[in-house]
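Input record (one chain):
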Amino acid sequence: MRIDALIASATQALADAHISETPQLDAQLLLCFVLDKPRTYLYTWPEKTLDAVTLSRFETLLTRRLQGEPIAHLTGEREFWSLTLEVNPSTLIPRPDTEALIEHILALPLPEAAQVVDLGTGTGAIALALASEMPRWQMHAVDLQQPAVELACRNRDRHGLRVDIRQSSWFEALSGLKFDLIVSNPPYIEADDPHLSQGDVRFEPLSALVADNNGLADIEHIIEKGRDFLNDGGTMVLEHGFEQAGAVRQLFEQYGYQQVGSGKDLAGKDRFSFGRLG
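The corresponding structure, as predicted from the sequence alone:
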């Protein structure tokens, strides 16, 4: 079968199954993974005939995608902020919306050699994106799950970035440290949220998704305890659900933060909130 015909057939199958909002892109990414080629190859050689082994590998991956498995888990990679990151089921798949949080942080008036920590780092996406842009920042990252710590370390080493990555339940392994910026994309989904049975999140660990107290338990813990780990004038930036912005701002104000506000994601929805101490 030719490349163009295979892409067309797979795109139709994915569209009919209502699995993805980007069926053609999914088909292209899977075929590029099998061929170990960039997407430009598909446009350059649309008439190329694929052999039986390639077709078989592609059909196997397509079947798994039709069953709902995320593209990132099938290929083992995800692009985030120009970085190719290894991804596996031990933690969340980095989302494009989180890049809005990175843009906000890079615009903050932080010290030239700022001390920064990313709590619940997962793949390391936030910490590594910041380290790639601000190499003089002193970057730290923690995660509760050891497999996630190991994954983040592999991504750090892959890109040759300087980030101290530790296993820790939030601030537990950070005793004695103070930061100019604390950032986190913590669990913020309610346990009974119907979205947990839809899309890619079905294949991601609940520990990275679900929090008590209407999804706000971990956020409140970070806001409260973070006061002991922020330098005077330090800033905290937290990602959250688009309907939680008001509640998160209220928590910042409740615990004495100033200059509290929220920022929008790519869809124009409130996706992260922030506050400053002192």
